[in-house]
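Following up on my earlier message about magnesium ion. Here are the inputs again, as you asked, copied directly from the submission form:
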Amino acid sequence: MTHVEHLSREGTFDKNRNMAATSAKYLSVWDIQAYYGESFIVQGVSFDIHEGEILALLGRNGAGKTSTLRTIARMGNPELKHGEIWLDHQPLHEMKAHQAAQNGIALVPEDRCIIPGLTVEENLKLAQIAPPHGWSIERVYELFPRLKERRTQEGTTLSGGEQQMLSIARALCRDIKVLLLDEPYEGLAPVIVQEIAKTLEMIRDQGITTIIVEQNAVAALKLADRAVILDIGKVVYDGSAQEVLDDEALRAKYLAI
Ligand SMILES: Nc1ncnc2c1ncn2[C@@H]1O[C@H](COP(=O)(O)OP(=O)(O)OP(=O)(O)O)[C@@H](O)[C@H]1O
Ligand SMILES: [Mg+2]
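Thanks, got it. Here's what our run produced:
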């Protein structure tokens, strides 16, 4: 099946779905084009997310997944030169990173960025240093009992899975609307992946919208409501996550699984 067949089929699906739920459209990414210097990397990416949805953003190495997340979070690098990003009626495309963060975007990068020398609880408290505050630390501990057990331990000495939990927990301590997760399952054992997936479902049930970028595409697709697949900086699929799981040819072509 060609790119175009996928796009037109999914385009039709999307149009119908959006007609039913236009008002629920929450994060809209429209034709974003972003560059590292002269390198044109995010080549006109568009997709919508509804409030409380989990979207899996997938694609091979170098497809532009991290660059797309960084563009949405307005990191500046890559530089957004065209297109619009709207979150809950706010124009993120007109904002810098700190303004996008104040408007509810939280990017959890691949390296997790736990602050050395601070305990688990100090890492969480630091996230609450400036308003607007999100979840209380007690509420975060209810979701992540392992972090409560390790509250006095230095954050950088946690296991990989616990560090990932801490970086998600830290994001929730701020008042966020959308969680952007870059490879949260990287390097983690399957049982820990399952534990984090369960937690992400609970976070969705509390109204947070999530984009998950993952090399572990099957795990991300099982978690997600919808999937967008990128290839060389462009969207080649936008549709249900289950359909990607069911479509072996599509997975082989764009995900090499
Ligand atoms: N800082 C940078 N400067 C120049 N080019 C970059 C930079 N970061 C990434 N790129 C290029 O942009 C393209 C997309 O990279 P990106 O990191 O967004 O891909 P990805 O889909 O996240 O890949 P992976 O699965 O390996 O994490 C790649 O060709 C990469 O070499
Ligand atoms: Mg990446």
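One observation from looking it over: The chain has eleven helices and ten strands. Hope that helps, and feel free to reply on this thread.
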